[in-house]
Specification:
The protein is an alpha+beta fold and 217 residues long. The protein has one domain (12-129, 176-215): Electron Transport, Fmn-binding Protein, Chain A (Pnp Oxidase, Chain A, Roll). It contains six helices and nine strands. Strands 1, 2, 3, 4, 5, 6, 7, 8 and 9 form a nine-stranded antiparallel β-sheet that branches. A hairpin with a 2-residue loop joins strand 8 (199-206) and strand 9. Helix 5 packs across helix 6. It is globular, with a radius of gyration of 20 Å.
Length: 217
């Protein structure tokens, strides 16, 4: 049975699981993200490293999808994907993105706005070799975001690559696959609070210095 519009309007939940004071926020937002990610891991939230990546296409239309955070570095956040995918082509033309983490179990959200660039090839090589064999084959086989005739086309490509690299033969990282680094220029930490009076602590980078401020909910 479809949910009628009025029933959707009546759905609500009060947020009472925590607070986030200005004084509790550390000076560096990337370090603050590491703290909150550690909280999410210890709380065993579902997919703690999942983040919504938003890009802009040539029509200036926003495009969003979920990717997985793979590392928190002093200067940014990294993930891996197909460079020839829709998102890869979009960031090649418009190297500005946003990221969004949402941990419902903790009633927390983190927004990130920044620039994006490719990771060094050696770093992508190292991570690719750490992946399970099936994931390596999938990265080689999939022409990500391109139209394919059917699933059997993809399964055939997987079988061909699997038969090519038998035994202990390593699968080399394809040139079309690798990592990105998102360098934040703005970050916001949101903690749900009762009566929609949420805590919002924002960071803005000014001349390489992070400025911290509280925002109204």
């Amino acid at each position: 049975m479809a949910i009628v519009r009025q029933e959707l309007a009546d759905l609500r939940e009060d947020y009472v699981k925590g607070s986030f004071d200005y004084e509790d926020a550390v000076a560096d937002p990337i370090q603050q993200l590491a703290v909150w990610l550690d909280d999410a891991l210890r709380a065993e939230v579902m997919e703690p490293t999942a983040m919504v990546l938003s890009t802009v296409d040539d029509r200036r239309m926003p495009q969003s999808r979920v990717v997985l955070l793979k590392d928190i570095k002093p200067d940014g956040l990294s993930f891996y994907t197909n460079y020839d995918s829709a998102k890869g082509n979009q960031v090649a033309q418009h190297p500005y993105v946003s990221l969004l983490f949402f941990w419902s179990e903790l009633q927390r959200q983190v927004r990130v706005v920044g620039t994006i660039e490719k990771l060094p090839p050696a770093e992508s090589d190292q991570y690719f070799q750490s992946r399970p064999r099936g994931s390596q084959i999938g990265a080689v086989a999939s022409p990500q975001s391109q139209v394919i005739p059917d699933r059997s086309f993809l399964e055939q490509r997987v079988a061909e690559i699997d038969s090519k690299y038998t035994g202990d033969i390593p699968i080399p990282r394809p040139a079309h696959w690798g990592g990105y680094l998102v360098r934040p220029v703005e970050m916001e930490f949101w903690q749900g609070r009762a009566s929609r009076l949420h805590d919002r602590i924002a960071y803005v980078q000014e001349a390489s210095i992070w400025k911290k401020q509280r925002l109204a909910p």
